[in-house]
């Protein structure tokens, strides 16, 4: 079964739009990676300042290959790099042990 990585990003109110624009401009950056299955950026509605970045991968090895290759390259930069929109980050890892999809009518 797949693995899920959730990056919980602490984002101050004044940085929410910046974060969302940065994710929108990266569209397609992960989708071509071997083993990539799904991406969602989840905006908090109430009670928290944490955005959740949800990705699903075929295996831990596929995720690690992306982390060491394309993701690492995208996050390294020169002096012009903008200040991060998030003030904190924590990555959670899960194995998918059960799943369901809507029944077809």
List the helices and strands and how they pair.
Elements: E1 3-10, H1 16-25, E2 36-42, E3 50-57, H2 60-75, E4 88-95
Antiparallel strand pairs: 1-3, 1-4, 2-3
Description:
- By secondary structure, the protein is an alpha+beta fold.
- It contains 2 helices and 4 strands; from the N terminus they run βαββαβ.
- The chain has helices spanning 16-25, 60-75; strands at 3-10, 36-42, 50-57, 88-95.
- Strands 2-3-1-4 form a 4-stranded antiparallel beta sheet.
- β2 (36-42) and β3 form a beta hairpin.
- The chain is globular and about 40 Å long.
- The two termini are 26 Å apart.
Count of β-strands = 4
List low-pLDDT spans.
none
What is the helical fraction, as a range of percent? 10-25%
Radius of gyration, in Å, reads 15 Å
What's the shape?
A: globular
Average predicted confidence as pLDDT? 89
Tally of helical runs: 2
| SSE run | EHEEHE
**How many angstroms does the end-to-end distance come to?**
26 Å
Strand order of the largest sheet: 2-3-1-4
Based on helices, strands and strand pairing, what is the structural class?
A: alpha+beta
Report the portion of residues in β strands: 25-35%
Biggest sheet features = 4 strands, antiparallel
